[in-house]
C-alpha cells in the first residue's frame, strides 16, 4: 500500500490545499464582535447520533502508518470539542433525527475532503480515508495576509506560519486570530496548537462550521434548515443543501462548474449518510450551478 500511496497523497494534498487560497477574501472585519465569548456551554448530545463504532466505520484509515495524522483525531477529542458547540447537530428547528444526522454527516464529509488521504482505487474506496492529514505539507507561504496584518487586529507574529491545520485546514492569520479568540487559545502566537492538540483542532473546525461570515451564512444554519436565501442568493442558485456548504467553504474554486474536489465532498457525504442512517440527503448536493460568494 505504501508504494502507490505517497504520490497520490501528494496529489490529494495539493488538490485540497488549493482551496486555502480562497480564504483571501473572507471578510475578517468585525469578526471579533460576532464570535467573542460564544460557545462556552456544553451538554453533548452527539454521541447518540455518532457512536464510537460508527466513527470508526467512517474513518477506516485515519490511524494507518501511512497517514500523518495517525493517532491524532480520536473520537473522544471530537466529542470534547463538540461539547462546546451545543447547537451542532441539535439546535431549535432541527431537532428531528434525520436533520441532525444530516448535519453531522455533512460536517464530517467536509472535514474529510479537507484531510483526505484517499485516491480512486484506495483500499475500502476513496471515501474511507478522511482525517488522514492534520497539517498542510510544503505550504507555499506563511499565509500572513498583509492587509489584515497591517490593520493590526490580526497582526502576524514573528516567524509564525498560518498554513492549513486541523480538520478544516484553518489557514490565514485573519482566521487563526478570531478562532483563537473565540476558543481561548493563542491563535496568532501559537498557531501550532491546532496541529498539536486534537481537541483544539476539532474546535477550530466546528467554530468554522457554526459561524456565519456575512454575506455567507454558517454551514450549520444551512444544514439545520435555518438559512433563508435573499434575492442575490436566489439569483445565484444558492439555495439550501449540502452543495451550499461546499460553496461556503471553497466555492470560489469548486463551484459554478464541475470540480473533482466538490464531487469528493459529495462522495463522503453519501457514504456517511448511509453509515448514519440518513433517510434523505436533501436537495442540491453539489454546487456546480451555484455562483460563489
Ligand atoms: C526568525 O527566524 C530567523 C531565521 O531563523 C531568526 O534569525 C530570527 O531571530 C527569528 N526571529 C524571531 C523574532 O524569532
Ligand atoms: C441556476 O440553475 C439553473 C438550473 O440548473 C441554471 O440553468 C442556471 O444557469 C443557474 N443560474 C446561475 C446564475 O448559475
Overview of the molecule:
- The protein is mainly alpha-helical and 293 residues long.
- It has a domain at 2-25 and 43-137 and 198-276: Lysozyme (Orthogonal Bundle).
- It is 44% helix and 0% strand.
- The chain is built from 13 helices and no strands.
- The chain has helices at 2-18, 31-35, 52-58, 75-82, 97-114, 146-150, 173-183, 193-196, 198-210, 219-224, 231-235, 242-254, 260-276.
- The longest helix has 18 residues, at 97-114.
- The chain starts with a helix and ends in a 17-residue tail after the last helix.
- The protein binds 2-acetamido-2-deoxy-beta-D-glucopyranose (NAG) (2 copies).
- The site of one 2-acetamido-2-deoxy-beta-D-glucopyranose has 4 residues, from loops.
Overall outline: globular
Mean pLDDT across the residues is 87
- Low-confidence segments, ≥5 residues, pLDDT <50? 1-37, 39-44
| C-alpha termini separation | 40 Å
What is the number of beta strands? 0
CATH architecture type of the domain at 2-25 and 43-137 and 198-276: Orthogonal Bundle
Strand content: under 5%
Ligands bound, unique: 2-acetamido-2-deoxy-beta-D-glucopyranose
CATH class category label of the domain at 2-25 and 43-137 and 198-276: Mainly Alpha
Oligomer: single chain
Order of helices and strands: HHHHHHHHHHHHH
Major beta sheet summary: none
Radius of gyration over C-alpha positions, nearest whole angstrom: 18 Å
Structural class: mainly alpha
Approximate helicity band: 40-55%
Number of helices: 13
Give the CATH topology of the domain at 2-25 and 43-137 and 198-276: Lysozyme
GO cellular component, one term: extracellular region
Active site: 114 (proton donor)
Enzyme class: hydrolase
Catalytic activity: Random endo-hydrolysis of N-acetyl-beta-D-glucosaminide (1->4)-beta-linkages in chitin and chitodextrins
Amino acid at each position: 500500500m505504501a508504494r502507490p500511496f505517497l504520490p497520490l497523497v501528494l496529489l490529494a494534498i495539493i488538490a485540497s490545499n488549493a482551496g486555502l487560497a480562497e480564504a483571501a477574501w473572507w471578510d475578517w472585519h468585525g469578526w471579533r464582535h460576532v464570535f467573542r465569548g460564544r460557545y462556552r456551554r456544553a451538554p453533548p448530545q452527539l454521541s447518540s447520533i455518532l457512536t464510537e463504532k460508527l466513527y470508526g466505520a467512517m474513518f477506516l484509515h485515519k490511524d494507518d502508518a501511512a497517514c500523518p495524522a495517525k493517532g491524532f483525531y480520536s473520537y473522544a477529542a471530537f466529542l470534547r470539542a463538540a461539547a462546546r458547540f451545543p447547537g451542532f447537530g441539535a439546535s431549535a428547528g432541527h431537532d428531528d433525527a434525520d436533520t441532525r444526522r444530516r448535519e453531522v454527516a455533512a460536517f464530517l464529509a467536509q472535514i474529510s475532503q479537507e484531510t483526505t488521504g484517499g485516491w480512486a482505487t484506495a483500499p475500502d474506496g476513496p471515501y474511507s480515508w478522511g482525517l488522514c492529514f492534520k497539517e498542510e505539507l510544503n505550504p507555499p507561504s506563511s499565509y500572513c495576509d498583509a492587509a489584515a496584518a497591517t490593520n493590526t487586529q490580526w497582526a502576524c507574529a514573528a516567524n509564525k506560519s498560518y498554513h492549513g491545520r486541523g480538520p478544516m485546514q484553518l489557514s490565514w492569520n485573519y482566521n487563526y486570530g478570531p478562532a483563537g479568540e473565540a476558543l481561548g487559545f493563542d491563535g496568532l502566537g501559537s498557531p501550532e496548537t491546532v496541529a498539536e492538540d486534537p481537541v483544539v483542532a476539532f474546535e477550530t473546525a466546528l467554530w468554522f462550521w457554526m459561524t456565519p461570515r456575512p454575506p455567507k451564512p454558517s454551514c450549520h444554519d444551512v444544514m439545520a434548515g435555518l438559512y433563508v436565501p435573499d434575492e442575490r442568493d436566489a439569483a445565484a442558485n444558492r439555495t439550501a443543501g449540502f452543495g451550499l456548504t461546499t460553496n461556503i467553504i471553497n466555492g470560489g474554486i469548486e463551484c459554478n462548474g464541475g470540480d473533482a474536489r466538490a464531487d469528493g465532498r459529495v462522495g463522503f457525504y453519501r457514504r456517511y449518510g448511509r453509515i448514519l442512517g440518513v433517510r434523505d440527503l436533501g436537495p442540491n448536493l453539489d454546487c456546480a450551478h451555484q455562483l460563489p460568494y
